[in-house]
Design goal:
Number of strands: 15
Distance between the termini: 17 Å
CATH class of the largest domain: Alpha Beta
CATH topology of the largest domain: Quinone Oxidoreductase, Chain A, domain 1
Shape: globular
Order of helices and strands: EEEHEEEEHEHEHEHEHEHEHEHE
CATH architecture of the largest domain: Alpha-Beta Complex
Number of helices: 9
Structural class: alpha/beta
């Protein structure tokens, strides 16, 4: 029997997750039935929304309990298949959980090609984080030529893609918000932001005001909290706000007070709540388009990697503390078996 590994919860998660909340265990390889595929994980994606799932705060998804495998999406290779259209050797993007070997329904797997660029990017700029950024900028904010755009969490997987996609769509100026000088440097040097403001630096609100003398046309918000308040103060009349994430609340026990609604009125603002699942039907087409942008050098990829499934808990803790730079990826196995 082939040996496999998986990461499970040691305890129910009620507060900020840490590496000690998880443990790696050895298990026997799972068996698959009709309509299912057995896959080996190559790259595992670690995402902030998993923190919400673990605390029972992510839409209607059931909350994992102690002993349950942690949820997660991966790029994987099909080892065995009992589903038409899938054969050993196929590469797929699929929900595996934090496992080295997994069984998944073929209906939930999407084939990907080695020719589409870096495989790990199918979990980042060309995957769901990229689609999130694209949906917010293209479909909701409808970014157009000459506009000035602000993106928070600018060095993260979604934020970095959002800034670049805004530029591709014609934005004249793209500025980022991030929580350290290192992250701001990455946003400018790797993702091509015109500027990036460290919201932990003294006087950052004044820096934001100077960066947008005519106001912010589009604000793509991954954070909420004080970043949202500051952006609203500089929003241009009839500006658009895309609410994508709430990083400022991921570690809080109670929901903090929100922004002053009067500001939305004064700015004549349009506010959009972004749920990427509404756009999942576009994932395949978006991935092809984003892969072309990556090959052309128009969409940069930046990853915060760890080697081995055993490292997933510590990298996830880093992510949930907001210390990652780029898309968080665990290298679980080789690209070629």
């Amino acid at each position: 029997m082939i040996a496999a590994e998986e990461v499970v919860l040691v305890r129910d998660i009620d507060g900020p997750p840490c590496a000690a909340d998880f443990k790696l265990r050895a298990v026997e390889a799972p068996s698959h039935g009709e309509g299912e595929i057995l896959v080996r994980t190559i790259y595992l994606s670690l995402d902030p929304y998993v923190g919400s799932i673990l605390r029972g705060r992510h839409f209607n998804e059931s909350r994992p309990r102690a002993g349950d495998v942690v949820p997660g999406r991966a790029v994987a290779e099909v080892l065995q298949s009992r589903a038409p259209g899938f054969a050993p050797g196929d590469l797929v993007r699929v929900e595996t959980g934090w496992r080295s070997l997994a069984v998944a329904p073929a209906s939930g797997a999407a084939k990907i090609s080695r020719d589409e660029g870096p495989l790990s990017a199918q979990l980042g700029a060309a995957g769901m984080p990229g689609l999130t950024a694209y949906a917010g900028m293209k479909h909701l904010a409808k970014v157009g030529g000459g506009e000035h755009v602000l993106v928070s969490a600018a060095a993260g997987g979604v934020g970095g893609a959002a800034g670049q996609i805004a530029r591709i769509l014609g934005a004249e100026k793209v500025v980022g918000l991030a929580g350290s000088a290192e992250k701001c440097a990455r946003a400018v040097e790797t993702f091509g932001f015109d500027d990036c403001i460290n919201y932990r630096a003294e006087g950052w609100r004044d820096d934001l005001k100077r960066a947008f003398p005519r106001g912010i046309d589009v604000y793509f918000d991954n954070v909420g909290g004080q970043a949202l308040d500051a952006a609203l103060a500089q929003l241009a009349h009839y500006g658009r706000v895309v609410l994508c994430g709430l990083a400022s609340q991921y570690q809080t026990a109670e929901r903090p007070a929100g922004p002053n609604p009067g500001m939305f009125i004064a700015k004549r603002a349009q506010v959009f709540g972004l749920v990427v699942y509404d756009f999942e039907h576009e994932q395949e087409a978006y991935s092809r388009m984003a892969s072309a942008w990556i090959r052309e050098g128009r969409l940069a990829v930046l990853e915060d990697r760890a080697e081995g499934l055993v490292q997933a808990p510590s990298l996830f803790e880093k992510l949930m503390r907001g210390e990652n730079v780029g898309k968080t990826i665990v290298v679980v196995g080789p690209e070629k078996n």
